[in-house]
């Protein structure tokens, strides 16, 4: 796989769940990799892991649990159990990051346990659960990332959804094996002020994900001026992954060209 030169130290990845959707999944992975991007996947339980590994793609992130939740005791035990299963898959794919949410999500992205209000007990339980998750990651040298989500459009009723929430939890855990998956699409809908958000969160970031608003398609199709975000990342010396977790508005290769252009910094 040839690596894309962004003019900065960060790398680009693409979600195979949302691009080249007319192709069989393995062909999506191969195509993304051939174009020079790292690959991200969601639910690994429905995929041929050996075949994915054999593609030779560089996998950047997978979902880090199958079922379970952060903030209730029974759900936490289930999350930890399935996180251990996910770590085995991450080892097979040589994938460094495993992604988590504030609660389990169903097939439509809705929370399995919706919460309009998060109690102090839920905060404490979530922090304790993430501390145990960090210990799992530390044991095998992998990182779990906690993703912020929006509740206005895509994930109503999800607890610990905002970037402010995920930042607070990751800071409370204070372990480099639990970091932020800072999703700027979700943050724009819920909070905005993206450059200052990146500046605030930078020491805690394990990955950044992007898509434009509205529509959740590639950069350049909505209101976010992603070149300004890219310039901020370059100025701050961010050396992690920027992942496109968005749909192609039309032709998938054109969408990836727009993504690459938005995050290429002129030297």
How is this fold's topology laid out?
Layout lengths: L10 E5 L9 H10 L3 E3 L8 H6 L4 E5 L9 H21 L3 E4 L19 H21 L2 E5 L15 H11 L4 E6 H7 L3 H8 L3 E6 L15 H11 L4 E4 L7 H11 L5
Parallel strand pairs: 1-2, 1-8, 2-3, 3-4, 4-5, 5-6, 6-7, 7-8
Helix pairs in contact: 3-4, 4-5, 7-8
Can you tell me about this structure?
By secondary structure, the protein is of the alpha/beta class. Helices cover 40% and strands 14% of the residues. The protein contains nine helices and eight strands. The protein has helices at 25-34, 49-54, 73-93, 120-140, 163-173, 184-190, 194-201, 226-236, 252-262; strands at 11-15, 38-40, 59-63, 97-100, 143-147, 178-183, 205-210, 241-244. An eight-stranded parallel beta barrel has the order 1-2-3-4-5-6-7-8, surrounded by six helices. Helix 4 packs across helix 5 and helix 7 runs parallel beside helix 8 (226-236). The longest helix is centred in the N-terminal third of the chain and has 21 residues, at 73-93.
**End-to-end CA span:** 24 Å
Query: Count of DSSP helices?
Result: 9
- Give me the secondary-structure category: alpha/beta
Radius of gyration, taken over Cα atoms and rounded to an integer in Å: 17 Å
What is the subunit arrangement here? Answer: single chain
Low-pLDDT stretches: none
Could you name the key traits of this structure?
8-stranded parallel barrel; alpha/beta; 14% strand; 267 residues
Summarize the structure.
The protein has 9 helices and 8 strands. The protein has helices at 25-34, 49-54, 73-93, 120-140, 163-173, 184-190, 194-201, 226-236, 252-262, and strands at 11-15, 38-40, 59-63, 97-100, 143-147, 178-183, 205-210, 241-244.
């Amino acid at each position: 796989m040839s690596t894309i030169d962004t003019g900065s130290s960060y790398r680009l990845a693409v979600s195979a769940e949302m691009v080249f959707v007319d192709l069989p999944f393995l062909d999506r992975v191969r195509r993304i990799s051939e174009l020079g991007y790292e690959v991200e996947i969601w639910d690994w339980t429905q995929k041929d892991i050996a075949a994915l590994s054999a593609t030779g793609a560089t996998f950047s992130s997978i979902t880090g649990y199958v079922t379970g939740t952060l903030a209730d005791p029974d759900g936490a035990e289930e999350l930890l159990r399935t996180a251990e299963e996910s770590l085995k898959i991450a080892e097979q794919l040589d994938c460094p990051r495993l992604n988590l949410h504030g609660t389990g999500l169903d097939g439509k992205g809705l929370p399995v346990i919706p919460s309009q209000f998060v109690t102090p007990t839920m905060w404490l339980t979530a922090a304790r659960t993430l501390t145990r998750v960090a210990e799992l990651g530390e044991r095998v040298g992998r990182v779990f990332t906690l993703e912020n989500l929006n509740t206005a459009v895509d994930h109503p009723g999800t607890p610990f959804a905002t970037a402010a929430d995920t930042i607070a939890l990751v800071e409370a855990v204070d372990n480099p094996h639990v970091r932020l998956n800072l999703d700027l699409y979700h943050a724009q809908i819920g909070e905005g002020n993206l450059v200052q958000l990146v500046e605030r969160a930078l020491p805690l970031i394990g990955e950044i994900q992007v898509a434009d608003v509205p529509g959740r398609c590639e950069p350049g199709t909505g209101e976010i001026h992603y070149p300004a975000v890219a310039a901020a990342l370059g100025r701050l010396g961010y050396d992690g992954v920027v992942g496109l977790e968005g749909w192609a508005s039309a032709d998938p290769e054109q969408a990836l060209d727009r993504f690459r252009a938005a995050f290429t910094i002129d030297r």
